[in-house]
Q: What sequence folds into this?
């Protein structure tokens, strides 16, 4: 059961994040303008709020899940370096002498 959830991709690359942000802001802006104009015409502020909230819901549906269009440019990670021997690599030691404070 848990393996099904682990197979769902949960990441988004940097260009995908930028695209999602632009889509989010565009939908919010368009719905706000449409809601304001419609609410002004019919003299009902409630419809303005409903239209903006509907735009918010649509933008969340389009931008929050990591859709494949947001994962087209993955980062090229460096390959893992295999160790030649079975011993783990040791960190270099600092050979500098430290002064004791009195």
A:
């Amino acid at each position: 059961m848990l393996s099904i959830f682990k197979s769902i991709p949960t990441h988004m690359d940097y260009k995908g994040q930028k695209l999602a942000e632009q889509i989010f802001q565009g939908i919010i802006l368009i719905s706000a303008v449409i809601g304001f104009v419609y609410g002004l015409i019919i003299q009902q502020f409630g419809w303005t709020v409903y239209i903006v909230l509907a735009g918010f819901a649509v933008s969340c549906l389009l931008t929050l899940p990591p859709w494949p269009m947001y994962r087209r440019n993955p980062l090229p990670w460096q390959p893992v370096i295999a160790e030649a021997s079975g011993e783990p690599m040791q960190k270099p030691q600092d050979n500098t002498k430290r002064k004791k404070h009195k």
Observations:
- The chain has three helices and no strands.
